[in-house]
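User: Continuing from earlier, I have the next pair ready.

Assistant: Great, send them over.

User: Here they are, in order.

Assistant: Folding the first of the pair now:
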Amino acid sequence: MQVDRSEGMINLDEVLTFTEAADKWGLADGKTIRKAVERGRFEPHEIKKSGNVWLTTYAAMQRVFGSPRTSPSVLYYTELYENTRERLERFFEEAGLALQRGDVISIVESREHPERIFCILKTEEELEGLQRRLKYFMKS
């Protein structure tokens, strides 16, 4: 578990319910992990019960059960993010050039639904506003 000592914050992306952990590690269900808790395989600081839900971390699961299982089809989030980021950068570059030529840009839902217009960009300032909004949502 990553802890930022300066702010006392825990990265919640590293926290899993027992059900989530069982799914990622290919275990039947959370009961397998609860049995490991009963047998003392987890350290006290690696688990917590919150209401009716048991929580643990990736690091604890890896220590106790090894690496999570991988499926035959793997999609790497970092590559997906990079491809998306690169495509967006190209789009904004081309859109900026189009606006400089005096073109107007319509952003529509899809090729199948060109009548569903999300926005119309007429100025570079509007394009920059869209770019800021997309960057904000990609950080989330």
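And the other member of the pair:
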Amino acid sequence: MNFDPFPWLTAIILFPIVAGLFIPLIPDKDGKTVRWFALVVGLIDFAAIIYAFYTGYDLNEPGLQLVESYTWIPDLDLKWSLAADGLSMPLIILTGFITTLAIMAAWPVTFKPKLFYFLMLAMYGGQIAVFAVQDMLLFFLVWELELVPVYLILSIWGGKKRLYAATKFILYTAGGSLFILVAALTMAFYGDTVTFDMAAIANKDFGLGLQLLLYAGFLIAYGVKLPIFPLHTWLPDAHGEATAPAHMLLAGILLKMGGYALIRMNAGMLPDAHVKFAPVLVILGIVNIIYAALTSFAQRNLKRKIAYSSISHMGFVLIGMASFTNLGLSGAILQMISHGLIGASLFFMVGATYDRTHTLMLDEMGGVGKQMKKVFAMWTACSLASLALPGMSGFVAELMVFVGFATSDAYSATFRVIVVLLAAVGVILTPIYLLSMLREIFYGEENPELVKSQALVDAEPREVFIIGSLLVPIIAIGLYPKAATQIYEATEAQLTTMLRGHVPALVAVAEPATVTIEPLVAEPAIAPAIDVAPEPTAITVEADVVDESLLVKPSEPLEPSDPDNPQIEF
């Protein structure tokens, strides 16, 4: 562990929350002063994240860094414990970047601006806390507290069905959180010592049966947030009613909390159960990719179309984390980073389009390309990023998942081929529904009233800056992926090595086979003076799997089996 003398993570988490508490004291009637205050707070916090990363984070260290630990309740070993490693650090940076841009995207908000910007800053600190805490009970608390500002933003600043969408969101996520609480308490009190420390819990020896139960509970809880089919139905409704800044945080950060927790806890703390569940994750990933892509293709509502596109892209995270390869898991993490940027850009463009057309139905749009050339160019760039155009981050992430899983030695060749072919179907569908969407919005059949509307103004500098800021890292990662992968590759390699060491727990048990091994000793040319040679004997071995490479001559040295190259036939 790498301890830092200054509590950077605590400061980064608490600063936006504490600063937000001063917003009611700001004399402001129209919200202009408040929004500048919130933006400055966001920029300062993001600058602190970058400074802490460059001064206190070692790219070659796979373990926890920037560690802070303060005892809370000694008898239960409860601590305010924070740290960052390769899995959490890129997501903390992503949170600071996306949230700061989301505050800028909230410029048009004029209804209760003080409350709105306070909730935005509270989400800022809460989401970083989710990625940084190292105590199971504290993780549950910040996971729950982070839901409060999301619910309020949806229910107050949403569309006509905002209360329905917000209620559905809170019921799904709070219901899933019950599984986190039960699992956390079970893991903490299991064994001779009571502890909520994640590192200590990871070292406990849970039986396979208990691991499977805990894994299933976590999978439900985090599957709601990722989301995984069929726990996804809250997301289209939430996106359908949210405002543009809320969209950016939902797609850019909130979904990544589910993927992060699956990798951190399901794979990292319950490795034997992860090996058992791995084929299930792959199948769920394929269902996510194809089902959501087909559903997105059929949507006529612009927000719901992009929402289902997000669900489809999250399927690659499931496949990558179940690949048991460095390339596959690295691709899954990169997909979370990439989609955070791309999803935020797409939903910002949805909000910008709605502000001008006052409709979300594709049937009511059309022919607005001439009036909004900059908006069309921005939409096109974001859509090309989403469909994984080479040279952009989405292409690199999905390619890494494809190649990582295709070359995995943990599955049979037949299963790998089927999975890759099915995932390719989703990749083919994505450009179809995105490019057809662009055609309908900008060059479809003209809506005379809409085309003549004075509201069809082209993109303003603020909007160009936001999209440009998102496209820069998207293109940079696409051209030079190591800029992102070097942050987490040490942690990812350590996790993959650990998981591969547990893969034999899933080896399929074949019917016992009887193997007769005859000693391969030639008859001597000249009889020995003293007859001491025993009669040839037969050795009967009960084995689950027959490996002909183990049938060796006595003169040959017996090579040890390769523990780093196990295989699961599925």
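Worth noting for the second one:
The chain has two domains: 2-500, 510-570. Residues 510-570 form one domain.
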